[in-house]
Specification:
It contains 14 helices and 2 strands. Strands 1-2 form a two-stranded antiparallel sheet. Helix 4 runs parallel beside helix 6, helix 5 packs antiparallel against helix 6 and helix 12 crosses helix 13.
Amino acid sequence: MRESEFNRDAVVAVLKDRAIWLVFIVMFIVFTVTSDKFLSANNIFLICRQVSMFGIASIGMTFVILLAGIDLATGSIITFVNVFCAYLMVKAGFGMVSAVVLALAISIAIGFFNGFLVSTIGIPAIIATFATQTIFAGASYLLCKGVPINGFDPAFKFIGQGYVGPVPVPVIIMAVCFAVGSFILNKTYFGRYFYAVGGNEEAAKLSGIRVGNIKYLVYTLSGFFAGLAGIVMLSRTNSAQPTAGLGYEFDVITCVVLGGVSIMGGYGKMSNVIAGVLIIGVLTNGMILLDVHDYMQMVIKGIVLILAVGFDSLQNKTRIA
């Protein structure tokens, strides 16, 4: 009896842990049945390319939320890197490689600045990152004067539009980034510190963890991954827009929370975040194919976020109990 109860509990635990993948499979089947265009090869590759930006940015956001923080600047970093990199290549005469490196350096600096505001100054993360979101959204308009920038080196298109065999390059970049993110969380000591700080910051301090340094690292990584997503987006669209990353932070947060990363910090898996990213990609694409109105799409995504956060809150109560 006890053994059967143990086996049942183990099965239930596995199902809870992988429930997000079951949701993805069910959603995939539903859209396959309801739209004859959904399962086409072109559409599947389109979904993969579309989710690559969310996926790359979600890795940094995962680290932040594991610390019970938030990074509302993600969308603005994507936009600013978009515009800044394009400005360097077209207006300032920089080569493609140097422009990309400098743009990523800027994104890292913005992330580091967020870490400074949160860790050293002590501003709540939601306020600090909202402030930088506003600053760099405005800076993007100032830099491009509200006008799109295009006319890049044709080789630049490879990052966002190229293929290696049948696989789109953005998908390869996303997969590598997820592998790096998983390695950081599971195989490095500071990855374990992310969980420790998010689970109980005071206990982490008492155990000798330099919590301030960890916050600097996490927000810097978030800035880097958002910047990389901005580079991929710029290459894919081949045009820098001052609204390129508008609202992206909402979708990225939804991907991460939907993937089971606790907004209370200290709990979550990178593998489930992948499922969260795929669900948002499939949901968005499926609604477009079914001709769901843009405003209704916003309503549905908002409901998905509420359900994900609500489920997380219930899970936290269960763990505490």
